[in-house]
């Protein structure tokens, strides 16, 4: 397989880091973005970028394309949380989360499709969350941003499907990352009781689904939402 040019936003830790490592193991040329410009895995090109700033994203894409070639696989993974009950949630909290998680994905996709349209082939993978489909108290902003990615992927599919470009969504559940490792043992057990699989997923399990969606085997899959949640959301 010819090495592809892959760009992963927020690839300096957690799921993004695992995504980068897995695509590297497949022989791809991988660029990851982080706000600091550091933190990606060995072998990846790490570029500084803020998904809330269009000029910053343009510069990051230009650097990645100069070194790795036009982006063929985009994984929009960068995201933040700012949890608060609805009555106490500020406008800034809502807008900042949507600005990173949803508008940031829009900026990434808009920049990536230029090269994909010229090549008449591309893979767009948006990292959502079970929360975007299932809902969660205190996460109105986060759930709205992650749910919005579904509509984005399906609209992209209708616009660009005839050009050989696919757009799909992965909706992870509880993943064994630094964030979940900080939970107390009692809270971990409580969460795991709600998961039919009875455990948290490893980040690599998300990465392998992304690799499939990026492959030629998934050329006829677009606008799909793939849950990686151990049955927690039951696809909703």
Automatic annotation (TrEMBL):
State the SUPFAM superfamilies in the record: NAD(P)-binding Rossmann-fold domains
Matching entries from Pfam families are given as: adh_short_C2
NCBIfam families, per database record? PRK12826.1-2
- Which source organism does the UniProt entry give? Helcobacillus massiliensis
Instruction: Give the Gene Ontology MF terms in alphabetical order.
Output: 3-oxoacyl-[acyl-carrier-protein] reductase (NADPH) activity
Recorded family membership: Belongs to the short-chain dehydrogenases/reductases (SDR) family.
Say if the entry is tagged with keyword Hydrolase.
Answer: no
The protein's name in its UniProt record = 3-oxoacyl-[acyl-carrier protein] reductase
Q: Which domain of life is it from?
A: Bacteria
Instruction: Report the SMART domains cross-referenced here.
Output: PKS_KR
Matching entries from InterPro entries are given as:
KR_dom, NAD(P)-bd_dom_sf, SDR, SDR_fam
